[in-house]
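Q: Could you write out the predicted structure for this multi-component system? I'm mainly interested in how the pieces pack against one another.
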Amino acid sequence: MRTIFKTSYDPDINLFKDRFHRLCYALLCIVLILFPFFLNEYFIGELTLTLIWAIAGMGLMILVGQSGQVSLGHSAFMATGAYGVVILQSKLGLPFILALPAAGLISALLGVLIALPTTRLHGIYLAILTLAISVLVEDIIVLAEPLTGGVNGMFASDIVIFGINFGRYSNIANLYWLVLFTTMLLVLVYKNILRTPIGRAFASIRDSEVSASAMGVNVVLTKAVAFGVSSFFTGIAGAFFGHFATAFNYETFNVIMSITILLMIVIGGVGSIHGAFFGAIVITLLPVLISFLRDFIFQGSSINLMALPGIETGIFSLILILVILFEPRGIYGAWLKTRTYFELFPLYRKDMFRRQKSYLKTERLR
Amino acid sequence: MILSLENISLNFGGIKAVDQVSLDVKEGEIFALIGPNGAGKSTMFNIISRYYTQSNGSIVYRDEYIDKLQPHQLSKIGVARTFQNIELFPNSTVLQNLLVGQNSSKSSNFLQEMLFLPSVRKAEIDRRVIVEKVIDFLNLQPFRDKQISALSYGTRKIVELGRALSMQPNLLLLDEPASGLSAEETTDLAFWIEDIKKIMGITVLMVEHDLNLVGKVADRVGALVEGNLVAVGSLKEIQANRKVVEAYIGT
């Protein structure tokens, strides 16, 4: 086990614990950047989609994992991002490089508008409200036909930045690098949130609103900021999703999408950036796995996976049940345990990660 | 006077939880509120820290009325509090819990923090220095990177005191700081409370059932009985007061 000898407070603030840690992430970045040179277009596309889901996952993770609010309506922010970026490009003629952050900001604004009147809602009530809002956004999209194309949906033209084409079908490698670059920036922002007062304010309202306000944290404002940042991330993901899908309509961003993002972060591990990525990998790998099973394992047998409707959702739900039963901290939790096992070998104990139940809380003052 | 309560009353329906209480806390003293269960001590605390709004009366803190403030605004003017049942953030480490206490004094906004400008790093180190002083003061070094959920009850109590201290308050409200502590831990606590007054110059208003602790540290004691402040004085005077004895033992 490596021990770091600290002589200043900087190591506790830095992004990376030590040189080895930094090296690992540098290698990961290099491998990710080099992928398009080794893989065919299909896999680059899948990787791009994984990153887009990961961005959306990070968005919801900020809300659920950091600030402790539940949302079942994040497809609404995906939709706002996707429609926002395409409308800004086609109707206002904004270049993509401006339209992308603008679409993110529109989503963030929507998030803040939802958060401000709903800060008194918790848990299941907030979930139901956000669910209702996502259904409402679907309807608004259909009604606002001159802007959104109504039930027919919209077509996203190729992304062009400074004359370089980032099109889904014409230049998928470029699109992959663009999404990768954005993902890295957003991870950096997420890490910054975690190591500064705003992240601690998020954690404090997640754990105890009463004592958060006693510590000088403005609960209403902090919740609004959490919602805003979360929907900004998700809006960016939605903008890329629109360009990745190239054609989309209101049905693309349905309730199933909201639930998928939520399940994704639960499977990946709530409360960690890694969790968003692990979850995203699981949901993009799943269809690949199913087609693999179909082609190699069950070929020629009487089981025809193609004929089973909803098999994907079924397997997804099965994974979720297994995760909640056996590893509530998700894939990232399992990885942490494995790593600790090897770091402390042979001293690891089975209950090392078990925590005591917290003591009685002050009776809520509301 | 650091804190003056003027004719504070609070009714819950037909119940008078606090009835016409007037109270002055002097700059630099330790004032203890005692009284039987249900006498309204914690209610008084919640009124002072603005979780409850009184039906009558007003609160003056350093010549300013603070009746209109929200709970989170109190930390800015230098009032910190602890809770009777520990209200720490269980999923964070001790260090992170203490750093939250410094949140109210931050000068950066969330956009600067998300971009991690150089000034944010500098402010972060300044905050850490202040928090490390508190850790030194309360001997919390062994627990610095431990999660709250992994700590014992006694340590959590101390961490909660530390979190209030890391706000660098002028007035510290302690709600039953010794409840659930062992005799040894209570002795430590008594020294700390004395030092908080003497070394840090912080005024302390506390609610406490442990009269040994009150006798050791408190300069003045107030006794609350059924929402009324029946006596103020030294612990000896309070213990000799007939009304107080009646309230505890019955007639």
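A: Regarding packing and overall arrangement: The first helix of chain B runs from residue 41 to 48.
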